[in-house]
Amino acid sequence: MYPGRFVVLNLLSRLSVRTKLLSLSVPLLMCALYYGGLQIMSAWQARSEAENTHLLVQLAQKLDDIAHEHAVERGLTAGFLGSHGAQGQRRMLEQRARADATQKALATFLSAHPVYEVLPKAHFQALFNALDETARVRQKVDQLDPKNGAFTFYSSLNQEALELIRRELGGIQSPALRAELSRLVSLLWLKERAGQSRGAINGVLAKGHTSVSQFAAIHYYIRDFNVYLDQLMRADDSLIHAGIVKFTQSANFQRVLQEETKLLEQGESLRRVQGLSPQAWFPLATARIKDIK
Fold it and tell me: What is the DSSP string of 189-220?
């Protein structure tokens, strides 16, 4: 009734046992190779993502170092200029060397690691351009050029460094790690606003007076610092929350808050600002920043 069936059975009966086993094992082997290949590919992707994440975390540290050391230089430069070159030159020059070291460290890191495979080189151009301008701005500072633009320059440079860290978020595959890095960016902006407040107030205290525009800028730095602080206080992370609470209760935080409040209350007497000496203010504000870092 089914001649085809008998033909197949007849052919199978002529095959050796070895051939029959091979015929049965080939499909199983193919399935094993297929699923094994998927597992290998998945493991390779996981390893690649882990390596990229590690690379980005290292890069974030290099960029943070650049922002931190140039922020210190910004503050010391403001004090030097505020005193018309009479105070703070030695410390400012020493800080320039530390800031230059972070630039060299970044260049070495970029040449030794495949960073541009994760982040396009074009993303770095604005930061590179800013770093190239450092020598020109410093020369104007040394000449006490009233149009040196140093404070704005260092703030823009730091903004580019922090923007690069923010862009790194796109290269992080893990949602948990991406959220953690996002909180890190908020912490770095908190530190940057603290640094801007430190530097601007240092310049005012060195001069003993300020302008309406500079007073408004200081008010903005302090207000935005509080915005980032509030964001971190609300973060869905018990460790971050506990750290911020401890930070706000510290002696350094309370003392800086007291001095900033005292300065802001002098809005009607900008021609004669009273407060700590620059030599006392700068270390105090720096201690608060170190608490953040």
Answer: HHHHHHHHHHHHHHHHHHHT---HHHHHHHHH
Measured CA to CA, the distance from residue 59 to residue 67 in angstroms comes to 12
Q: HSE, CB side, 13 Å, CA atoms: give it for residue 163.
A: 11
- Residue reference for tokens 């149009």: 147
35, containing H or E segment? helix 17-82
Q: Which two tokens stand for residue 115?
A: 């960073």
pLDDT in 10s for each residue of the chain, 293 residues? 455 555 545 555 665 666 655 566 666 666 666 666 556 555 445 555 667 778 888 998 999 999 999 999 999 999 999 999 999 999 999 999 999 999 999 999 999 998 888 788 898 999 999 999 999 999 999 999 999 999 999 999 999 999 998 888 777 777 877 788 888 889 999 999 999 999 999 999 998 898 999 999 999 999 999 999 998 988 777 888 889 999 999 999 999 999 999 999 887 777 888 888 999 999 999 999 999 87
Q: State CA 3 to chain mean position distance.
A: 77
- Residues 6 or more apart whose CB falls under 8 angstroms from that of 268 comprise none
